Structure formats: C-alpha cells, structure tokens
Amino acid sequence: MVVELVSVGTELLLGNIVNTNAAFLAEQCAALGLSCYYQSVVGDNVDRLKGILATALERADIIILSGGLGPTSDDLTKETAANVMGMPLVMDRHSLERIEVFFKTRNLEMTDNNKKQALVPRGAVVLDNDNGTAPGLILEKGKKRMILLPGPPNELRPMFVNSVKPYLEAIEPGIIYSKTVKICGMGESKVATVIGDLIEGQTNPTVAPYAKTGEVHLRVTARAMDEKEAKQLVKPMVKELKNRFGTAIYTTEQDVTLERAVVDLLLANELTVSTIESCTGGLLAARLINIPGVSEVFKSGYIT
Q: pTM higher than 0.85, yes or no?
C-alpha cells in the first residue's frame, strides 16, 4: 500500500517549529512495509489543504495528517478532511467526556471551544488521546483511508504506536527490515562507484548510500512477510558489502557510533589513547569521553 504524509500548520512553513513528526511517521511507515512517495507541509488554510488532500487521494491509499486538531478557529484539519471525505461532523459523547475529565483532573477551566474537539466525522474510528484533548481519527471511504493525528509529538507518537500501528498492521501484512553498514575513510562518490551494480540491479533487498559527516552509511532493506524471512534476504547482501569494503566498514550495528567502535577496539586490544588538540578545542576528546567505559583506555587530553 502507498501512504502519503501531510503535516498541517503555518508554524511549520515559517520554520517556527521543526517538523519531527514527519520523520517519525516516515520511519514507522517504512518499517510497516508501506511505500511513501510524497510528503507535504501545508498552512492553516482550508482551500490549500483541500487541494493537497484531493491530490493525495489520487496517488495514495492511506493519508496520514498531523496537526490542526486543536480547539481554535485556525485548527481546520478535521473539518476539511471530513468535507473531502463526505462525512458530516457529529458530537462524540465519549470524546467529550474524556475532554471534560482531562480539565477536571487538572483543575483547569474548560472553555466552550474545547467542545469542538469532540466533534468527529460520522462513521470515523475515534482514537483516544491519553496525553491531550484532541482525539485521533481514522476516516474510511471505499479503499481510501485518512488518519488524523494531533500535532504535539508527545501526543502523536504514543497514539501512533498504540492505536494506528496495530490498525495498519492488520490491513498491510508484511514488514520492511533494514541493516546499516557504516563506512569511514571513503567518500560517498567512491562508495557509490564500488556498489553501482548493487544500487541499480537489486530490488529486494535494496542498497542505498547516505552521506554523513566523515563517513558513509549503506542501508540494506528487504521486504518480506516476517522478520526472519527479511533477515535471510539481507544477510547475503551485507556479506557482499563486507567483501567489497573490508576494514573500511567499522560496524553493521545501527546504534554503534564511530567513537564507540574506536573505544571497543582499544579495549579489545588493551591499548590506550591520549589526545593533543589545538583548533578543535577538545572536540575529539569530548567524543571519546562520552562513551561508557572509556576511562580504561583514555589516559589524558591536552588543548594547546
């Protein structure tokens, strides 16, 4: 299935808020085996949001919207999505009661505009929000689905993991599994040349290079019905990359940084290290010192 992400909020367009929701949702959808070809950011404007949704419905099976579910007049996501899907808004007593309890337990005054958040499109699946007042929503029409999530990350993330993810897993069986191969001492262009045939000639698994500061990461990704099958697809590709790059690969673990790999090598070989820095002002020593257990191998650092 194809998913499209739409982030709603003028503050995102102005750069007042960093759009971390899109990165989170894209990663989650990829892990679920959903294909994402487009992401959009649109301001709090009904006509422009309608245009985005109309286009998204033509090219995607699932549209995930974030933001614009608040109580104020510029929060228009729910109303616009309901209009596009042809689903009139009705009061949801369950959501209204949850909103009332939210304010009461915190000794806060509930204003009338908060009741707006309890209006839901008729027939929609309502997702309880345990961290805020705006419920999430799933709108279904034929084979098209819109999933509406609140904008604050502390509300969006748990709602996605606890409610949306199980829903998507039920309608899209299969997973995507990735393994990262990290290379240092070789530029992106050189790496791309070495694996040109693998980039162009493979569809499952795929290999994609990502340039990082001072290193290059290769992500090997496979699609399968379960994790075991996906790992079996990835394993021979990782082996081939090791054959081609040899010791330029310092790890195949996602969470291992270059400094972690250096410290592990020092510990394994019972070696120690000292640093003498000038223009870097202690940055090299700082990266090493951040690693747990480094005190056994890091003896001293000088800034001259």
A: no
